[in-house]
Design goal:
alpha+beta; four-stranded antiparallel β-sheet; 11 strands
């Protein structure tokens, strides 16, 4: 009994911790709940790129993920569709136009050296071999007069290229091109070592920041064109969230009423365990964290149903044990033991299915699979540990004096106990049926 009391208080403490986590820690919401932008990009072939390969698509996906991170938007999904398309979902984005323009930019930075005639005059520009790929990072800064500029920090290889370029063309301008357009043509005053440079021009802060963000995110390995864009408004997302909450409350309430009606006191214990299960599960979602979408909510609600199913198996087995004449304590233990195999097999089948869905499914399916898998694992703890502990503390040991508390009739228990007593008496005197 002492161990059961310790376990009881451990469950209570775990429940309190879960409530604190739920209150303090926010949960990330998906596009379908908070609104945002859904964009489809298509990789484009060029004169030099005749075919889009999977390596190119992987590189494009990685570059776009970096760009979205530069936007400061979390919980974004980038997923390949077919051979040459990517689906990007950006939840809670405040400026869809900015996201559209940002994702579509190529971010090609190139330093071009001057083409000189026989008199030493500049007649044009050609590639110098120094590009954005040689950058470590870029940042926005200001000069002494307060004008916005862009500072560049090259890699060691890029620093060597830049030093050579400034040494060879001292006294001449070097053109800095961004996405095919000249944004600055500074004159080299001296050889620049150390791998640091500045781009000056008539920049506004927003223009400079956009260029810096694109440079830090990296260039796209292949050109990409936005072919489709949909916007999910926050009102629609909020409406979906409210409907999901309502459906969850109604569903959970109906299940709890059914458990009390059919199983009486054990049903009430199961309902308490179900509330504890829901609190622990939701706290785990916030700790992971799990991005909650409509599909994720569906997985959460389905896992609640499976948790109830486990309690139903346990209670039905317990009632069978009581009808067979076992004492209350023995019937509860046997009920849990007999039901465990069925619960374990069922839950393991569900978890295996969730793993397959998570590995092979889209991000929406992955959200459903993850919430369902976590829910199923927590439900086993709830049914086997929480419910069993509360049952023992509530009913203790001995004979069931009030069968109605288990939804049974007096005759069911009396006949069972009489038959068991007769059997024990015969066994006492060595009489076997």
């Amino acid at each position: 009994m002492k161990n059961k009391i310790i376990l009881f208080w451990a469950i209570i403490i775990l429940t309190i911790i879960s409530i604190v986590i739920i209150k303090v820690k926010p949960i990330p919401l998906g596009l379908d709940l908070v609104g945002g932008s859904r964009i489809v990009l298509e990789a484009q072939t060029t004169e030099t790129i005749s075919k889009i390969t999977q390596d190119m698509m992987d590189g494009l996906k990685s570059a776009l993920e970096n760009r979205v991170n530069a936007l400061g938007v979390s919980e974004t999904m980038v997923q390949q569709m077919g051979e040459n398309r990517l689906l990007i979902e950006i939840p809670n984005v405040s400026d869809p136009k900015l996201a559209r323009e940002f994702l579509g930019e190529t971010a090609e930075l190139e330093f071009k050296k001057p083409v000189l005639d026989e008199n030493g005059d500049t007649t044009g520009w050609e590639p110098s071999g120094l590009t954005g790929e040689d950058l470590n990072k870029a940042a926005v800064g200001t000069d002494n007069s307060g004008r916005w500029l862009i500072t560049l920090e090259f890699s060691s290889k890029g620093a060597s290229k830049f030093a050579k370029l400034t040494r060879e063309f001292k006294g001449y301008p070097i053109a800095i091109y961004f996405n095919g357009e000249s944004i600055s043509e500074p004159v080299v005053q001296a050889e620049i070592n150390g791998g640091h440079a500045q781009i000056t021009g008539e920049f506004t802060h927003d223009q400079a920041k956009k260029i810096v963000d694109l440079l830090n995110a990296g260039a796209l390995p292949v050109p990409a064109k936005i072919i489709e864009e949909n916007t999910v408004g926050p009102t629609l997302g909020a409406d979906s969230l409210e409907k999901s909450k309502f459906a969850g409350i109604v569903g959970l309430g109906a299940v709890m009423l059914f458990m009390i009606f059919w199983y009486r006191v054990p049903g009430l214990i199961a309902d308490i365990a179900l509330i504890i299960y829901s609190l622990i599960l939701f706290a785990i979602f916030k700790m992971v964290p799990v991005t909650l979408t409509l599909a994720g909510i569906a997985g959460f609600i389905l896992s609640i149903g499976m948790a109830v199913d486990a309690n139903i198996l346990i209670f039905e087995r317990t009632k069978e044990e009581l009808k067979s004449g076992r004492t209350l304590f023995t019937a509860i233990n046997s009920g849990f033991d007999r039901a465990f195999t069925s619960i374990f097999d069922s839950n393991m089948s569900t978890i295996i299915t969730c793993v397959i869905l998570y590995c092979l499914g889209s991000n929406i399916v992955k959200g459903f699979a993850l919430t369902l898998a976590i829910g199923v694992m927590v439900s086993m703890f709830s049914a086997i540990t929480v419910t069993k502990n509360f049952m023992h503390l509530m009913f203790g040991t001995g004979q069931l004096k009030h069968p109605a508390l288990f939804g049974l009739k007096e005759s069911d228990i009396n006949e069972a106990y009489e038959a068991s007593e007769t059997k024990r008496e015969k066994a006492k005197f060595g009489v076997l049926d």
